[in-house]
Amino acid sequence: MKKVIKTKLYKEFRCIADQCSFSCCEGWDINVDEDTYHKWNNEQGPFSKLCKNIYKEKEEEETVYKIRMGKELHCPFLDEHKLCNIIKDYGDDYLSNTCKSFPRIENDMEDAIEYSVSCACPAVVDMIYSRKEKIELPHTIINRFNDKKLLTYKIRQHMLYLIEAKRFNLQERILLIFSMLLSLTEESSEIEAILEKYKEESYLILLLGVIKDTEISREDSFIEKNELFLDITEDYKKEFHYQPYLEDIARLAEDIDYSGKTLFDWRNYEKFSMEYEELFGACLAYKIYSNCIDEDVEDIIMSYQLIVTEYIMVNYSVFLKWLLNKKKRIPYEEVRNLIVTYSRIIGYNLEGMTMFWEDSFDDAIWEFGYAVALLKD
Ligand code: SF4
Question: Is the CB of 50 within 6 Å of ligand 1?
Answer without folding.
Answer: no
